[in-house]
Known about the structure:
A: mainly beta, four-stranded antiparallel beta sheet, B: mainly beta, five-stranded mixed beta sheet, 9 strands
Amino acid sequence: NAGVTQTPKFRILKIGQSMTLQCTQDMNHNYMYWYRQDPGMGLKLIYYSVGAGITDKGEVPNGYNVSRSTTEDFPLRLELAAPSQTSVYFCASREGSGGSWTQYFGPGTRLTVL
Amino acid sequence: DAKTTQPTSMDCAEGRAANLPCNHSTISGNEYVYWYRQIHSQGPQYIIHGLKNNETNEMASLIITEDRKSSTLILPHATLRDTAVYYCIVRGSNTGNQFYFGTGTSLTVIP
């Protein structure tokens, strides 16, 4: 059981380039999340999904897109990279229902936009 | 979701209990208290959660005051590997799907 995996671990982009951050979970969780974490700050929610085919915006969605075609995968797309998107990106999936909000996080992708 | 207030940083001697406080004075009846931690450069890790009663698991204990306006996370015998940022989060079971992390408490365990 690998949990939540993310690729790549590190990436450097030039301004205006695009890329997709991959996230996969093998726990059959319906809920998946993308967060970003800037240096010295807490996590901010970018997008989330409550199941295959259903996504919604979080706090900071501008400049990003997501899709959820399967339960396992939740890729995050950056279309026109900007220096402000330099950050560490974490994917998470959630188990449980009702009051249980235990989230399992991936190891993160460290992105630098120059 | 109720706002939480945590100290910015704390130190604890290795082997001693680490007590991390969290104020959530606007918490409502159906909101749970969650604790996560983030060891440097890693993804956050779930520790424990509770509603009213005190909770204990293999990692920590959670003490919630009777009025539920504050809570304390207790690491009974802190080790160097417990050095991390600890986040206290309060959310309801039916208040949407977002989960707000603040800036947390940076705990340093000192040898």
